[in-house]
Amino acid sequence: MASVVTVSTKPYEGQKPGTSGLRKKVKVFLQENYTENFIQSILDANKDSIVGSTLVVGGDGRYLVKEVVDKIIKIAAGNGVAKLLVGQNGILSTPAVSHLIRKYKTLGGIVLTASHNPGGINNDFGIKFNCSNGGPAPDNTTNEIYKLSTAISEYKIVPDIQCSVEKIGVQKFKVGDRDFVVEVIDSVKDYVDYMKEIFDFPKIKSLLQGGEKNKPFNVLIDSMNGVTGPYVKAIFIDELGASEENVRRIVPLEDFGGAHPDPNLTYAADLVNAVKNGDYDFGAAFDGDGDRNMIIGRDAFFVTPSDSLAVLANHLQHIPYFQKTGVKGFARSMPTAAAVDRVAAAAGKEMFQVPTGWKYFGNLMDAGRLSLCGEESFGTGSDHVREKDGLWAALAWLSVLAATQLSVQEILSQHWKQFGRNYFTRYDYEECPSDPCNEMMQELEKKMGSSGFVGSSHSSGGKTYVVAVADNFSYIDPVDQSVAMKQGLRIVFEDGSRIVLRLSGTGSSGATVRLYIDSYEASDVLGSAQEKLAPLIDVALQISQLQKYTGRDQPTVIT
Ligand code: G16
User: Fold this and answer.
1) Residues in contact with 224: Cβ distance below 8 Å, sequence separation at least 6, in sequence order
2) Is 164 considered catalytic here?
3) 525 CA to middle of ligand 1, Å?
4) Which end of the chain has the lower number of beta carbons within 10 A, N or C?
5) Which residue has the least CA distance to atom 1 on ligand 1?
6) Dihedral sign computed on CA atoms, order 294, 298, 301, 304
7) Residue 458: which of 556, 542, 362 has the closest Cα?
């Protein structure tokens, strides 16, 4: 029989979860009791229901996951948790955690990931709590966790529990007079079974093998050495009959092999080049924890996440899950281009615009008002879980391609002809010094609120834009009326074009500035986004004085 030990500790500053969980450098988490404090704060935030509860635990395989899984097991045992469902070797993708929480009706789950941020001893780690609906904890819970972390004085742990997470199976312990169970589960099985329910796998398999056209549809799927590797193997190779040549980087590595596991045109350039130079019809990449996706077509034709969302919204009828559930509303985050709004209007569906962060979609889904949503930050997903889901997005695209027998580019051209096109780009200025960036945002907000700003004209490249609306976006949740203030500076011009500026909430050091540019054209739809948006980008740089404050001439990443 093992017993609970109470350990004295002191609070650390800065354990405030960002857009999605607490993300810091590994070395920060390695400080004495830093990780223990945060885990105890998560459990304390659930104190009314923690005793006798079941939690899901897993992560994206990055450096420190295994050690922290072990700490969670011991601290959960110390706090009266009855059972943990742990992914084998600590491996679970973020959408898989969400599914497991829902399927097994647990109190929630703890996800160990810093998502798309690099891993390894010199890089990032992260801890996130998901609630019983499977979604990231909402602001009131993360605020409570933070508050508890600022006043913590002790944590409870059972140091004598020796639990291996290498083998699938049930391990039982006695803690005082309580039973404590750790069930190590297959990391992929439940998720793969679910995907087989949602999609028509035989139809996708037939597409990949040549189907009606009798010409194999060649895919290249890139896990970027992140957690999706085993899921990609199970789905694409074992279920859909793809070959080893159709997948790459499918072994999760603690440091992602040195890659920055963020599926965008800069960090997934390897995949883009391979598709450009090879005979591929479709390419997809996923981030470290498997919730983000990037979709490209033949010749590396890039689908912006905003367009990806709109195209899927327009074709959900091809997916068996939606044939069963019907299609409720659609939603996007505020900085995401409004392409999906046009699909919603044409289909007569409710359309919601939420702040950046998947957690804001959860209430709408739980209320039965939202089927499909997405974010410009390479997130797409549906109410099948409460996280965005990279593999789901790739399978959704393949379902549409199988049903329409069109190429990726043809689908987009057709879509733009029908709905017009929202040209969109995002400039990221990563890891800038924080103080000048904060000052830039404050000064810009002041300028936007000054008299005469609304109505003022701004010109570049022969185009003139007149400001119609200037605000700091705030959101009232239509379900529980909770309010989220100051979610991004937004300047909307009279022709509907938009500039949005916000500071990232997912970085682990310094400040990352995100500049989002969006402009709608009803008929001129086949141009290059960078050319079309050049005048507006210039106007954004003038108004914000971004280059002066950040000291950067060029963004780190252009999407
Ligand atoms: C997280 C959230 C997303 C959000 C993204 C962007 O993604 O889950 O909902 O859009 O951050 O965050 P930011 O612009 O603040 O960096 P992930 O994939 O990092 O979990």
Assistant:
1) 249, 256, 259, 261, 262, 263, 267, 268, 285, 286, 287, 288
2) no
3) 29
4) N
5) 20
6) negative
7) 542
Average pLDDT over residues 49-64: 97
* CA 262/CA 377 separation, integer angstroms: 10
- For residue 463, pLDDT beyond 80: yes
| H or E segment and range at residue 77 | helix 65-78
CATH of the domain at 159: 3.40.120.10
Q: What is the pLDDT of residues 90-141, one digit of tens each?
A: 999 999 999 999 999 999 999 999 999 999 999 999 999 999 999 999 888 9
Ligand 1 centroid from CA 496, angstroms: 25
Sheet holding 457-460, edge to edge: 457-460, 463-472, 489-493, 498-503, 511-521, 421-432, 557-558
Spatial distance between the Cα atoms of 7 and 122, rounded to a whole number of angstroms: 28
Domain range enclosing 159? 5-187
Backbone CA torsion sign across 35, 37, 42, 46: positive
Q: How far apart are CA 396 and CA 385, in angstroms?
A: 14
Instruction: Please tell me whether residues 181 and 204 are part of one structural domain.
Output: no
Return left, alpha or beta for 511; rule: phi > 0 is left, psi -120 to 50 is alpha, else beta. beta
Picking from 223, 249, 234, 244, the residue whose alpha carbon sits closest to that of residue 189 is 234
Q: Name the domain boundary from 132, 162, 187.
A: 187
Ligand 1 atom nearest residue 387's Cα: 8
**pTM of the entire predicted model:** 0.92
Of all protein residues, the one whose alpha carbon is nearest to atom 19 of ligand 1 is 115
Report the first-to-last Cα separation within the chain, whole angstroms: 56
Q: Are residues 367 and 458 in the same domain?
A: no
CA 332 – CA 308 distance, rounded (Å): 12
Q: Are residues 147 and 133 in the same domain?
A: yes
Task: Say how far apart CA 423 and CA 304 lie, in whole Å.
Answer: 9
Q: Which of 53, 115, 377, 399 is catalytic?
A: 115
- CATH number for the domain spanning 553: value is 3.30.310.50
Which of 371, 402, 419 terminates a domain? The answer is 419
Nearest to 112 by CA among 131, 133, 97: 97
149 and 215 part of one domain? no
Q: Which residues contact 479 (CB under 8 A, 6 or more apart)?
A: 363, 364, 366, 367, 369
Residue 339 is predicted with a pLDDT of: 95
Q: Dump the DSSP string for 397-413.
A: HHHHHHHH---HHHHHH
Residue 216 and residue 88 in one domain = no
Same domain assignment for residues 134 and 245: no
**Radius of gyration for the alpha carbons in the chain, expressed in angstroms and rounded:** 23
Number of domains forming the structure of the chain: 3
Q: What are the structure tokens assigned to 217, written together?
A: 């549809």
Residue 127: both structure tokens together: 């801890």
How far does the centroid of ligand 1 lie from the alpha carbon of residue 323, in Å?
30
